[in-house]
């Protein structure tokens, strides 16, 4: 049951979580942004918040309402239904729910507000045919820049031991981890040779660390470094591993990290950062809000590819890989070579609807064949990847 607006406002003000502008003028177009974490996390939630700011800056009259840290640990008394009711009261005509964690509740709530467009990020209700008419899905194809991040890790590694700190386990988190592995294995074999690459994954249990609930990111990152891993990649919403790597560098160790999600991920310790696979949500968000404003929005499951000719430019592509300061000049040359391979593959019409390096022979972690020799994995099978890939160490399920 949805609470009354007065109660909602009291709760929101007491928790200091909702940033709501004054009552909107009639010529303003209001949209809501629901974040699972804080808007300044240097990761996933910050990337979405900045995407909303981009809409405000580029669409006259657009005004964003924001609710931060909607999760059971930070706001246990507040539900998505509470936030949506408040946003609608404040005039929102589009509401972005920016997490896999909100997918089920978004689909349940949307029919209650048939005149409001809901966009759930990373969900697949439209793809499966289960979405109400006013719900759309959008996700960027982060698998491509994850290939590049894996290559960067392999080029910088001297031990051939790469760690990956992931959040919870689902198809999305498995496939981005697997893409990083494929990029790392390819570049290790091509440019480094020698012993086999060791690629190990640990999962903390949620999209970011929650004391007493999840594993501690700093501890898990240090655990990798203590055991001879010299690169740690992130699949988390936050970027603590960069700070950990910087602290180890200050002690004379040659270790590096690769954060995820936001272009700001490297800013805490640039010299310890090899680069960051980033999202620029402003580009699809501007299109979606503009479509709704013009009465032209149509329901879509949109898995958006990078802008290939500008895959390193966060101002131009929805997702890509931005270079950090940790790579040497020689490593940068090799990474540029690999990136050119990725782009050449992606822009070749013969490879349409496939992803580079997702070609057989590929097996799942338990040895089940995913793709035979020379056969490309269907992107939908990548989307619903049921296990990690053979050659990766770590759990494929939470059971």
The backbone outline, from C-alpha atoms, is: globular
Report the radius of gyration as a whole number of Å. 21 Å
The CATH superfamily of the largest domain is known as: Response regulator
Computed structural class: alpha/beta
Query: What is the H-and-E element order?
Result: HEEHEHEHEHEHEHEHEHEEHEEHEEHE
Query: Can you summarize the main beta sheet?
Result: 7 strands, mixed
**Residue share in helix:** 25-40%
Distance between the termini: 33 Å
What CATH architecture of the largest domain would you give?
3-Layer(aba) Sandwich
Low-confidence stretches: 1-25
User: Which fold name fills CATH's third level, the topology of the largest domain?
Assistant: Rossmann fold
- Characterize the quaternary organization of these chains: single chain
| Mean of pLDDT | 93
The top level CATH class name of the largest domain: Alpha Beta
Order of strands across the biggest sheet?
A: 1-3-2-4-5-6-12
How much of the polypeptide forms β-strand, as a percent range?
Answer: 15-25%
Characterise the protein shown here.
- By secondary structure, the chain is an alpha/beta fold.
- The protein folds into 2 domains: 5-140 and 281-308, Response regulator (Rossmann fold); 143-278 and 327-393, Rossmann fold.
- Helices cover 35% and strands 18% of the residues.
- It has a 7-stranded mixed β-sheet, with helices on both faces. Strands 10-9-7-8-16 form a 5-stranded parallel β-sheet, with helices on both faces. A two-stranded antiparallel ribbon has the order 11-13.
- Strand 7 (161-166), helix 7 and strand 8 (198-203) form a beta-alpha-beta unit.
- Helix 2 (44-58) packs across helix 10 and helix 6 runs antiparallel to helix 11 (329-346).
- The longest helix is centred in the middle third of the chain and has 22 residues, at 171-192.
- The chain is globular.
């Amino acid at each position: 049951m949805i609470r009354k607006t007065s109660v909602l406002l009291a709760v929101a003000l007491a928790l200091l979580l909702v940033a709501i502008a004054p009552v909107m003028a009639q010529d303003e177009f209001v949209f809501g942004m629901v974040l699972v974490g804080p808007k300044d996390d240097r990761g996933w939630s910050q990337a979405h918040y900045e995407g909303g700011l981009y809409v405000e800056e580029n669409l006259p009259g657009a005004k964003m309402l924001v609710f931060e840290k909607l999760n059971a640990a930070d706001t246990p008394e507040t539900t998505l239904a509470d936030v949506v009711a408040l946003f609608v009261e404040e005039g929102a005509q589009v509401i972005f729910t920016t997490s896999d964690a909100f997918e089920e509740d978004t689909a349940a709530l949307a029919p209650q507000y048939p005149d409001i467009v809901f966009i759930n990020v990373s969900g697949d209700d439209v793809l499966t045919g289960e979405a109400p008419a006013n719900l759309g899905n959008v996700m960027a194809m982060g698998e491509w820049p994850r290939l590049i991040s894996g290559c960067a890790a392999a080029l910088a590694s001297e031990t051939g031991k790469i760690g990956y700190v992931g959040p919870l386990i689902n198809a999305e988190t498995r496939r981005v981890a697997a893409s990083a592995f494929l990029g790392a294995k390819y570049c290790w074999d091509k440019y480094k040779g020698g012993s086999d690459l060791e690629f190990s994954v640990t999962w903390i249990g949620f999209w970011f660390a929650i004391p007493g609930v999840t594993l501690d990111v700093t501890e898990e990152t240090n655990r990798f470094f203590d055991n001879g891993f010299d690169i740690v990649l992130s699949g988390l919403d936050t970027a603590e591993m960069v700070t950990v790597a910087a602290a180890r560098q200050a002690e004379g160790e040659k270790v590096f990290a690769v954060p995820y999600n936001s272009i700001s991920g490297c800013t805490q310790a640039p010299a310890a950062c090899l680069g960051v696979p980033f999202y620029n949500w402003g580009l699809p968000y501007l299109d979606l809000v503009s479509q709704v404003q013009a009465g032209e929005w149509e329901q879509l499951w949109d898995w958006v590819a990078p802008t290939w000719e500008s895959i390193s430019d966060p101002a131009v592509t929805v997702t890509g890989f931005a270079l950090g300061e940790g790579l040497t000049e020689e490593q940068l040359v090799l990474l540029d070579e690999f990136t050119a391979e990725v782009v050449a593959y992606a822009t070749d019409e013969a490879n349409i609807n496939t992803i580079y390096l997702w070609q057989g022979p590929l097996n799942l972690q338990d040895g089940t064949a995913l793709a035979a020799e020379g056969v490309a994995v269907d992107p939908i099978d990548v989307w619903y990847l049921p296990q990690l890939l053979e050659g990766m160490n770590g759990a494929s399920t939470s059971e």
